[in-house]
Amino acid sequence: MDYNETLNAMTLARLSYYSLASIHLLYRQAGSATAVIDNIDNIRDILPDASERLVEILRDCRRMRSRAEEELDYDLSHGVKPLDMSSSEYPHRLLECDDAPLVIYYKGNANLNASRVINIVGTRRCTPYGQDLIRSFVADMATLCPGVLVVSGLAYGIDVCAHSQALERGLSTIGVLAHGLDDLYPTPHRAIASKMVEQGGLLTEFMTRTKSDKINFVRRNRIVAGMSDACILVESAAHGGGLITAEIARGYNRDVFAFPGRVGDEFSEGCNNLIRDNGAALLTDAEHFVKAMGWEGDASLAKARSEGIERTIFPNLSPEEATVVETLAQRGDLHLNMLATQTGIAVNRLTSVLFELEMKGLLRNMAGGMYHLMPMR
């Protein structure tokens, strides 16, 4: 962690509550939070068209910094990772979103940049029908895509059911919160939240001592949508938070799916309407979903592993190449910088190793500097 950059990003993040779009534009223009802070008194040198309101907001920077310092001390002593946009652990999918938080606070052990990330959302008053759908879907996903990361909001109903089933099936699961990591809402979910920290994690953009106000849940939904490849709506009334998340996901050009329900059922109305209006693809089961997403290769790899086929059968792999293959097999897709950290191979040397593996057909270089291990055939 770059302590100074993280602290500066946390300071700007506090200011972004007042004008997220302006602070985002300034951050991207400057290239770092530190560059913004270093030019706080002459901000128009970076952004000539900066509004008077933005200049006024930035005058509060020094007061906000003391709050950021206090927060960072808390984080470092409580196992919380503050991840700014320059961190290799920051969800790279979220970076694609114009309104992504400058900093997120994370406690857990899951890879936020797993090769497959889905969110499962819906009503807080789910029915036995919705529970059965989640149970079956997650169980099948654990077989078809064993490395999939399941994201939701740890709310009552669909959210907590999705988290629970992911834990039961050995999948990592992330709960995105509408408050700081010094609290847990709703209180009855403390036990499952503790399990999630050991098999996934908890994530938020809010500092400690932040109340779970209504607007924070809407802000939370954009993180759920933005860090995922696809949004899956299980049950929803005509209006609800799940529909908001689905709409945000569509705005981010994410794939959106919905399970249909019986016509006239209150908590299927939102799903049925979304499917009818072409706002979501109709979903019936995990196999259908995997095919729609083009993730069939995951199932092939899972089958190969279950049959005991080891990647060491590949001939002519150098020790460094074998290390890279094994790391990607265990961790899923990784960014170049994270791969260097995990393997202990210097970046300048690692790029040569990765090129050789690509030539052997074992790796694929994906967008954003991510590397994907090709499924065995």
Q: Give me the number of helical elements.
A: 17
Rg over CA atoms: 22 Å
Shape: globular
Instruction: Give the integer mean of the pLDDT values.
Output: 88
Total strands = 12
Which series of helices and strands comes N to C? HHHHHEHEEHEHEHEHEHEHEHHHEHHEE
Helix coverage percent of residues? 40-55%
Q: What composes the largest sheet?
A: 9 strands, mixed
Q: Class by helix and strand content?
A: alpha/beta
- Give the amount of beta strand, in percent: 5-15%
CA-CA gap between termini: 39 Å
Strand order of the largest sheet: 1-2-6-5-4-3-7-8-9
- Uncertain segments: 307-313
Topology (SSEs and partners):
Layout: H1 3-16, H2 20-30, H3 33-38, H4 52-58, H5 61-77, E1 81-84, H6 92-95, E2 103-108, E3 117-121, H7 128-144, E4 149-152, H8 158-168, E5 173-176, H9 190-198, E6 200-204, H10 214-226, E7 230-233, H11 241-251, E8 255-258, H12 269-276, E9 281-282, H13 286-293, H14 296-306, H15 319-331, E10 334-335, H16 336-343, H17 347-359, E11 363-365, E12 370-373
Parallel strand pairs: 3-4, 3-7, 4-5, 5-6, 7-8, 8-9
Antiparallel strand pairs: 1-2, 2-6, 10-12, 11-12
Helix pairs in contact: 1-2, 1-5, 7-8, 10-11
Features:
single chain, alpha/beta, three-stranded antiparallel sheet, 17 helices, 12 strands, nine-stranded mixed sheet, 377 residues
Provide a concise account of the structure shown.
With 377 residues, the chain is α/β, with parallel strands linked by helices.
